[in-house]
Amino acid sequence: MKKVISLVLTLSMTLGLFVCVGPISLPSIVTAASYAAGDVNMDASVNTMDVRLVLRHIAGLLTLSDQQKSLADVDNDGKVDTADTRRIMNGLSTGAPIDTMVDINLLAPDIDDWQNPILETWGVTAVVAESKATDGATVFTNVGGTIWPYAGYVYDSKVLLPDSAEIEYDLTVAAASASINLYVGTVAPDLTSYSDPGRTIIKLNSLIGDTDEGSGDLLPGTYKGTISVSDLNVGAGQREGDNVLLSGIKLYVVGSYNKTGETVTIRKLQTRGYDEVKNVHVSTDPMHKVRTTLMRNGETDGLSAITEMDLYTNGELSDAQYALTTKDNKVIYRTESKQRVVNYPSDYQIDIPLGWTPDYSLSALRCQYSSDEYVLTVSRENKSTYGNTASGWNTYLTEWLNRFIQAPDSGYHYFFEYNNLSYSRDPGEKEVTINGTKYTIMTYDIQINNGSSWSNPKPDMAVGMPYYSIAIVRQSNRYNLFYLFVLKSTGPTYPMMDRIVRSFKPTTHSGTAVNSCGQYELKIPENWSDETKAYYNKIQNQTSVDWGFYTISIPATSDSSYTYNKQRFIEGYTALHDALDWDYEILPTYTHVSWSGRKAQFPLEMANEYAGGNGFNGKPVLQFTYQFTDNNNENLERYTPMFDILRGNYDATFRTMAQGIKEYGKPVLFRVNNEMNTDWTSYCGLVTLLDPDIFVKTWQRLYDIFEEEGVDNCIWIFNPISKSTPYCNWGEDLCYMPGSDYVQLIGLTCYEFGNGQSLSTFKNLYTELYNKNKNYYINYPWIISEFAAGAGGEKRYDWGANAWVDTELGRNQQLQAEWVNALFDCFDNNQTVANAFCKNIKAAVWFSANDYSKVDGKSIITNYLKLDEGVAGTIEVFKERLKNKKADPQTN
Length: 892
Fold this sequence. Notes:
It contains 19 helices and 41 strands.
């Protein structure tokens, strides 16, 4: 049910706190003007990384946001092209030259298999064998830097090339002259000064001959030939008799300050003229080729001998010999004492104990590492809408991060007392230096107590993992990017968390994190009654959309105000039913698990009287929304049932509820804890120690009790809201998904509150939601469990003026009516390609109740959603379109 929501924002020194209604999408206050032209990655500096991003965008390897495009378009010609990259190059504050290797690397495709036909395009011909190489084998490890995959021997492997061997090359220089160098090893030369840190083996143009008088550069043209290994100047320690000892060869094309348009096409760089290349000290690690493909930033520094190495690509353990840098790569190095996790797309590495296993199924949102005693969740967070400022960070932190875990200076807040939580140690904040950069680390260490005594807290072992440590790691001068660590355990957690956080280091970015969970499998419970199976089969296969309308919830006879609330329901139900001239196919109602400690029961009497449908008998099917709240989700700072549910204190209540639903007997659309991915419900992650797993565990506990009680008529609905708030990764709806064994229907909720000068169309709103859901839930039927479009409240909040302003109630009624008419057009044509977004939608429930807020002590309508005499035009549209559905129910 849509409720009054408290959202505390720091808007100004004088405004203080205010109350608003409903989920609010805050406008971003970060604009391109906040950053210098050319600062494409918005890190407050213009550097070669910005050039690389632009080049990858031009090549189609990534898509810049509109804001980034604005920053990248430095010549202001309305497009992002190579002219912009040249301007950025020339404007770099360091004065470092931008070399041709950037062009080669960033415009080259990643190569999965060195025998792939794509190699013909890029001219790479062969691969060094694992244990030996024969004539014609490639021995270079990289072409131009860090993006193109390596080939050859590196690290522990050394290659002995006889002096009689030759290196054959075939390349084309285009558009400008270039200086081409071969280097030993795996580290690039110093491109700023062109100085060589002892790694140069030969300058190619010196062997070919100076082609540009006095410059030593290669002019445009095609160059083919060989270099004798005996001519290589490799220095002492790199020879063994008549052999040259190499750890790989790289080709670099280095431009100078005034050269533009440099490109080099490499068709061949290989050895020839010998029978066999001998490997010396070849690594026994079968993953050494993988290591060479990954961008290294000292991630193995400080580790003892590596005993094992695992590569995870797109969430799955991989045995690939080469890792594509555009994919989601994660590496775990193991020694005899610990594991080191390197997460390339999320730009960090940490050390964790041996035995912890990774879960990368939701890698785009979070990564988890677990054992029998610990679960660690790590997420990279960069979705703040408050800008890269200290004040913006403070707003985000206090409203959307530590709101329920940070005690005020005066002592423990009420939330801890009411839910019997306590600190294992006081919250802390410190500044540390990592790789020369200062980071701020905030820590919160909390335990869930057994409920027996607030004054003598003892951890509740019945919870399973009652100890929590939470750490927020942020670069001290950066406010819109941080890492969130949540560690829970069977014992005190903060010593372990301290070790993990101390091991944190940023790494060089590579690839894009992806969710590999794939499509969730639809599983039909075997114990469903025949009537429930028949109804589910009906909605699963129908092309029509069933309709329901919420006015007020039906009470249980045990409710203290049963008679009063029953009369209110009858009046509201009858008025809307008669106005629409429509027999509901779905009857929605809401029940809280308790109210001020009074446990709720199933409203059996009124469910039988006003619902009782099975999809075939002409009566409405009951949609029963069960919410784990004790206060209508209004006073979140006090009590939430979530911790008591974990403790088992609501098991008897759940059994009573299960028995009532079982006695009811007819199919129930059972929606549990809707809009959990928000900051306004008693069961959201903000309230549960930033841990959506608590939501999952309480859902599963309820489900299992229903199974034990033999409930065979519940169709369980998982129903997040369309846009998660807080804006974060750790709290996205996928993190709350209870699992395929616990869900049979996907609920949708997206409101258009109707307070602007125009309304976002149903198609636009639900196409966006469809695109969000289609990769995970396409196997399920979908139901819009609650939604509406508003007609315009009597006040709206003006964000620019930081004040409420008066508006005419119902001013957008005509737009509302048009909105409803258009949504029926979509449903009527839901089998067409143009309306594929609503093909899975089988039912819709309009929330016919207004949202209110108190302004200056007066309760006013902020979202006008109720279908009453004030929106007669909208009711007429509903009446007409539902009449058409009644005449031909399978046409929409």
